[in-house]
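Internal tracking record. Fields below are filled automatically when a chain is submitted to the structure queue. Please do not edit lines marked as system-generated. If the sequence contains nonstandard residues, flag them in the REMARKS field before resubmitting.
Queue: standard
Priority: normal
Entity type: single polypeptide chain
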Amino acid sequence: MWKHPIVGFKIGKDEIEQWSDGMKNGVKDKDGNLVGKISDTTRGIYLRCCRAVWNECVRQGYLVNKQYPFSNIRQKDLVSIPNGKTCKDRYLTVEQMTRLYEVFINNEASDKWKAGYAEKAHQSLGLFLVQYLCNGFNLVDASELRYTSFYFNSERRAFKFNRIKTTNRSENGSEVIIPNIPPLQRILDDIAAPPKLNALVFPYILDGATSKADKRVRTSAENSNIQDRVIKICKDVLNWEVRPSGTWYRHSFATNLRNAGVDINYISESMGHSTNEHSITELYIDHYPLEKQMEYNSLLLNIDSKKKPKRDELVEQLSSLSTEELAELLARKK
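SYSTEM-GENERATED OUTPUT FOLLOWS
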C-alpha cells in the first residue's frame, strides 16, 4: 500500500484494489523509479491469500456489514483476481474414466504391489471416481458429505450439500444436488458407510478430526494418497502414461459433460458456481480435446476421401444391390 497502510480493519474494496493496481503496474519511489511491479501469477497468489484472510475475518466477526470485495465478473466492478496458467487439458476422457471404473469394479491390481496395497489403492480409486461422479466436488466436500433428510426424502436418489469453498460468496449458498446414478451407488456400496440419518458418508477421511486445522491435515493427507495411488494404477495396471492430479476429476466432469452437449448452465450449477459465473466454469473446460483437433485439422486436406470404404459402409452398399447385380459383380471379379 506504499504510503497508505491499512490500520486495524479499516479496509474495503477500494484499498484492496489500490494494492492490486500497485502490484500490477508498480509504484514510483522517492527517486521516481518504478518499483513493486510483479507478475499476474504472483499477484493472483497474494490476492487469493488476501481473500482467505478476508473470509476468516468475516467468520470471526471483525468485518461486519462489509461489501465482499472480490469478483471476476466485470459488471460487478469489484477486485478481479487474475488466473494463473489454466490446466484445462488435464482431464480424463469418458472412455478413460470408464476404464478406471472397470478397474474398480473388477478389483484389478498389479502383481508387483506389496501385500495390502491393492486394498488401499482400491479405496483411493473409489474416492477419485466418487469426486468425478459427484459433480467434481473436492475432498473437503466429500469429507463433510452426510446422509441428510434430503437423501432419504429423495428415496436415496440424490445428495444435497453446500460447497464449502464458495458458501459465503455465492448467491445460492453454493447448494449442489448430486444425482445418485447407479455407477455411483455401486461405488458407495463398496467404500461408503451404511446410510444413517445425518451420518458422514465417508467418515474415514476425517478419522474423527473435529477442529479446522486437524480436518485440513486429514484431507491433505488423503488427497496425496489418492493422487499417488491413482497414478500407480494408471501406470502399473493400465500402462498409461498420464499422471492424474487431485484436480483432474473436476476438469474431467466439466469437460466431458460439455463435449457431450450438456448446457453450460447445468454444468455451472452442478459445480457450485452461480449461473452468471460461466467465466469460472470455463476455466475447467477444454472445449477442443486432441481427438477433436485431429478430426478438424484432417479437413485441411482431402486425403481421407481416397481411402477404401469402411467395412460397414461396404456392407451397406452391397445390401442395396439386387441379386442380379451381385451376381454380375461376382462374375466380373472372377
